[in-house]
Amino acid sequence: MRFKTVIGLEIHVQLSTKTKAFCSCPADVFEMPANTAICPVCTGQPGALPVVNAEMVDYAIKLALALNCKVNEYSRFDRKNYFYPDLPKGYQISQYFYPLAVEGYLDIDVDGTTKRVRIRRLHLEEDAGKLMHEGDSITQAKYSLVDMNRCGVPLVEIVTEPDLSSPREARIFTEKLRSILRYLKISSGDMEKGALRCDANISVVDVEKKVSSNRVEVKNMNSFKFIEKALEYEEQRIKEALVRGENVEKETRGWDLSTKTTVSMRGKEEESDYRYFPEPDIPPVVVSRERIERLRFSLPELPDQKKQRFVQDYGLPEYDASVLTADEWIANFFEVCVELTKKPKETSNWIMTEMLREMKEFESEELKIKPEHIAELIRLVDRGEISIKTAKEIFPEMFRTGKMPGRIVEEKGLKQLSDEHTITEIAKKILEQNPHVVDQYRSGKTNVISFFVGQVMKQTRGTANPKIVNEVLRRLLER
């Protein structure tokens, strides 16, 4: 407990608008050929004037409301000045002095405890272009290529207070934020495509010596896993420096995937370095209270609300409800399944264990499994036509082929044998062939019944109903 870690996040969310923030170029540029989705406005040509995308503003207000922010009726754009190869204007249009929203929060679950992470501000801005470095390592690249397609793509930046105290909490926060983005349908939240990008500011306090390290910014983290790994590395690096009594530089560092380390990129900029001043070509953004309330009314049921409803309406444990509602598609799939099965907990078990495991390993985006598959599988088990073991065995084939479970059972001859007369005849023969084991059972070693159960299952190729097998064997052995 000697050290206390302090983390604040700056998260950029790419909004799924049809066009860019200030021009009519398409905003979805991920798979477009380099430098083809550009125009004089987004490349900063002399005389080109920006016009605010109204859809971008509505999307940002929705997110602000979902994150419990106060939406300002008056906000304004500013110029953030810096020179970089992928910023053709030499400045970025952002909001600094008057952001769109402030003073929000997001509650996250950490080991069964709810932790509130405050959100300092939420503002709109445009994206810069993209540099593609030659080679895997940003420190070893000999040259870089510039793609301007991303210039002007609309972003929301979310700045948290330094309320996070571990790399794991940072990961949990960003995962929950992505879930909200997808529920709102305002962003894909795909980190691998750059639609959700996270920078983290981290410092460590030596509680014993009552000193704090300088704040270090960590960039280039393009997955939830790497957010956690990069911050774990940086946390340890700072702790070791404090133990040695060394100064921790106030700098910006990048996560180098090839070496699994953070590397120094540049000195940390201060606010004054950007020389903010009001954007002269864009009037203030004024949104009416009526517009804000209309957007609030349009919000869907969000993950936390849906989780609470799943607990109350379906009697699910909080853990189950959390897993099922983390993804809206899974939550909707579950609800349709329950309409068919009327068995919430059993349905939850099949989805959380078998289905989510298959989805993790499945590469295609087109899923063939439907709620009807789950419902029929549960019915087959309930009727005693197949065992749970058999159901789990056929699940992968059902998931990947889209075949109904009943059809797979018929094709493979897996229908469970529940005829008591047939099972009794098989059991009698096995007892006759193993009289010494029968004697052991009758002398008090009742656990040997598992031997007979195994023999019956072997004779029936695993299709005998285990419950009936046990009942028949006990009745025969206890005569």
Automatic annotation (TrEMBL):
EC assignment: 6.3.5.-
Domain Asn/Gln amidotransferase: residue ranges: 332-477
GO biological process annotation, one example: translation
SUPFAM superfamilies: GatB/YqeY motif, Glutamine synthetase/guanido kinase
SMART domains linked: GatB_Yqey
Keywords, alphabetical: ATP-binding, Ligase, Nucleotide-binding, Protein biosynthesis, Transferase
Family annotation (PROSITE patterns): GATB
MF-aspect GO terms: asparaginyl-tRNA synthase (glutamine-hydrolyzing) activity; ATP binding; glutaminyl-tRNA synthase (glutamine-hydrolyzing) activity; transferase activity
Pfam families listed in its UniProt record: GatB_N, GatB_Yqey
Catalytic activities: L-glutamyl-tRNA(Gln) + L-glutamine + ATP + H2O = L-glutaminyl-tRNA(Gln) + L-glutamate + ADP + phosphate + H(+); L-aspartyl-tRNA(Asn) + L-glutamine + ATP + H2O = L-asparaginyl-tRNA(Asn) + L-glutamate + ADP + phosphate + 2 H(+)
Entry keyword annotation includes Nucleotide-binding: yes
Function: Allows the formation of correctly charged Asn-tRNA(Asn) or Gln-tRNA(Gln) through the transamidation of misacylated Asp-tRNA(Asn) or Glu-tRNA(Gln) in organisms which lack either or both of asparaginyl-tRNA or glutaminyl-tRNA synthetases. The reaction takes place in the presence of glutamine and ATP through an activated phospho-Asp-tRNA(Asn) or phospho-Glu-tRNA(Gln).
Classification via NCBIfam families: gatB, PRK05477.1-2, PRK05477.1-4
PANTHER family reported for this sequence: GLUTAMYL-TRNA GLN AMIDOTRANSFERASE SUBUNIT B MITOCHONDRIAL AND PROKARYOTIC PET112-RELATED, GLUTAMYL-TRNA(GLN) AMIDOTRANSFERASE SUBUNIT B, MITOCHONDRIAL
Record text on subunit structure and interactions: Heterotrimer of A, B and C subunits.
Family per record: Belongs to the GatB/GatE family. GatB subfamily.
Name of the molecule in the record: Aspartyl/glutamyl-tRNA(Asn/Gln) amidotransferase subunit B
